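dude i think i finally got it to work??
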Amino acid sequence: RLMKKLMEKFYGLNSKVLCEDQVEACHHWINENFYFQYLEDSTPDVEMICQTIKALAIKKGIRFFCLDPWNELDHSVRGSLSETEWVNLALGKLRRVARRYCVTIILIAHPTKPRPEDIEAGGNAKTPSSWAIAGSAGFRNKADVVMSIHRPLYGDPNEKGEVDINVTKIKDKDMGGLGYVQLHYNYESGNYNDIF
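look at this
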């Protein structure tokens, strides 16, 4: 499934319309540039993820690591720590390994379900903030960059692919600034485009 999504992003086309040569060329590009690790028989914990990042940085020279999704990690090792204390500890470990091995970690964390006060008059959920992530204070404090990707009309029959991208935290001004943009999500290709 992920390979198909990457092919669509690579070509900007639905994978169903790609010819055999395009699929082969894309497979080659993906195999040269990405390493996938599926842990179907175990639930990884933060320590296992840190060891994986270290090994891939040393053996393969990776510079980016995408952890998707955060909520599928084993968090039972937190013991008597509160959720926020555990998130602070876990994110601290990830930051240290990222800095030591010069790897940017992209961590995908889904927000909690919207509360009644998070629903707009039309029935759609407001853009979630970093505080909407379970253990949110830790995410807000430890992350260098926080951004949300939100479909404001999700589930609405009038939805036409509108997506809000909202950058709510930048720790280092050299990395950019706070901001908001609305883009169009193209369901056929999986790409984001400007709204005209």
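The beta strands are 64-67, 104-107, 145-150, 162-170, 179-186, 191-194.
im so relieved honestly
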